Amino acid sequence: MKNIFLLIISFGLISCNGISQDNSTTIKKPETTMIDKIEKSDDEWKKVLSPEQYEVLREKGTEMPYSGKYYLHKEKGIYVCAACGSELFRSDTKFDAGCGWPSFSDVVDSTKVVYTKDKSHGMIRTEITCAKCGGHLGHVFDDGPALSGLRYCINSVSLEFKK
Ligand code: FE
């Protein structure tokens, strides 16, 4: 009787393992793994970016407020990463937050950017970088007016506009 009991338990464990192995093969990988990442050395980036773009995109600089070419830009189209061309923000999510930098309520899709906690300059903020090339774009704040409640505060220098 004891042997039969052990046999039933053993069979049960094997069955469970079998089920969990089947499930593991059907779990979808996050979409972020499908983005073809671009990796370049600092010297290679310096060759393809202007000094201003390099300072912001590669060294996490910030352009002067109210100075960027897209701060008051209102044409309809899409804003792509100035370093790699990845589509990041749509013009219909752009709004004037009065902060001096182009502001958006949403990204084209959440896999296009990476969110990282940034404790620099005595503040706790969420930095936004391009998921494809790693370029610094700006920060996101939770005081946006739109449905998302978010304000993506982005350097013009990190963007290129496409009609
Ligand atoms: Fe990029």
Low-confidence stretches: 1-32
Number of domains: 1
CATH class: Mainly Beta
The count of helical stretches stands at 3
Classify the beta-strand content into a percent band. 15-25%
Strand order, biggest sheet? 3-4-8-7-6-5
Main sheet characteristics: 6 strands, antiparallel
Report the bound ligands by name, code or SMILES.
fe (iii) ion
* Distance N to C terminus: 78 Å
Mean pLDDT: 83
Helix percentage range: 10-25%
Total strands: the figure is 9
The chain-level structural class is: alpha+beta
Task: Give a written overview of the molecule.
This protein has 163 residues and is an alpha+beta fold. It has a single domain, classed as Peptide methionine sulfoxide reductase (Metal Binding Protein, Guanine Nucleotide Exchange Factor, Chain A, Beta Complex). 25% of the residues lie in helices and 23% in strands. It has helices at 2-26, 42-48, 51-58, and strands spanning 78-81, 87-90, 94-95, 103-104, 113-118, 125-130, 136-141, 151-154, 159-162. The strands form 2 sheets. The protein has a 6-stranded antiparallel beta sheet. A 3-stranded antiparallel beta sheet has the order 2-1-9, with no helix packed on it. The longest helix is centred in the first third of the chain and has 25 residues, at 2-26. It is globular and about 40 Å long. Fe (iii) ion binds at residues 81, 83-84, 86, 130, 132-133, 135.
